[in-house]
Amino acid sequence: MNQVFKAIVIDDEPAARRLMKSLLKEHTDVVEVIDEAGNGGEAIQKIESLRPDLVFLDIQMPDMTGFEVIERLERKPNIIFTTAYEQYAIKAFETFSIDYLLKPIKEERLQQSIEKLKRFGHLNQTINISGLQDIIRQFQAPQKATALPIKTGDRITLLRFENIAYLEAQDKYVFVFTTDGQKHLTDQSLTALSEKLPSQFHRIHKSYIINKEKIREMHRHFNSRYLFIMEDKAGTRITSGRTYHDEIRSEFGL
User: Fold this and answer.
1) What's the CATH code, domain 5-137?
2) Residues 53-83: pLDDT tens digits?
C-alpha cells in the first residue's frame, strides 16, 4: 500500500493554489492536501505546526523567497518547487537534482513527481541553498528598459529611447525632445536621468544629455567645446560645455 503524503500548497497567487489542488485531486492515493499558504511567513508557521510530509513551494513570493522559507525551517519536509523561471534557467534545478514544476504546471509533469514519490518514498533533501541561489541569481538580471516614462497628471506616456533626440534642463525644469519635434516635461532631474538612461545617451553639458544615435554631424568648436547637430525635425544645434571636453573625447574616440 502506497504512503499517503500530507501536503501543503504554498503560492502567493490564489489561482495557482487552486490549480495545484485541482491537479492533486487526481492523486489522492498518494497526496493529501491538508492546508495552503499565500506567503513565506504563513508558510513557515504552517509547516512547523502541521509538519507535512510534502510541500509544493513557490520560489517567488512578496515577503521572502522559497529558499528563505527552507532556510528558516527546523524540520525540512519533501520539497517540490514551483517556478515561473524560463526553461533554460531550470537547468539550475537539474544541476542540484531538485524536483520542480514549471508554471503553468502540466498534469504530465506533476505525474512524474508523484511517481518519484511512490517509487522512492522521498525526494532529495540535501538542498544546497546557497549554490542554487547563486545560479538562479544569474537569471534574475532586470529586463532592460526600452522607454522613458513621462508622467502627466494620472497619465503616463512611454517615450521610446530610439525616438528621443536629447534632454534639456531649462531653469528648474527638464524637457525631453523627440526626433519628431515634440517636447515633454519630466519631473526628474538631469542628473537622475543620466543614471537611468541607457549607454547611447551621453551628457555633454550641465544642461544637455544627447542621444548619440541621433547625431547628424559633430564639429570642433572654440574653447575646447564641440557643436552637435542633431538628427531631429529641427536640426537642433547643441554646444557642449568646456568641462565635458575630456569625457566627450573619450566617449567618441577623438
Assistant:
1) 3.40.50.2300
2) 999 998 888 888 888 888 888 888 888 888 8
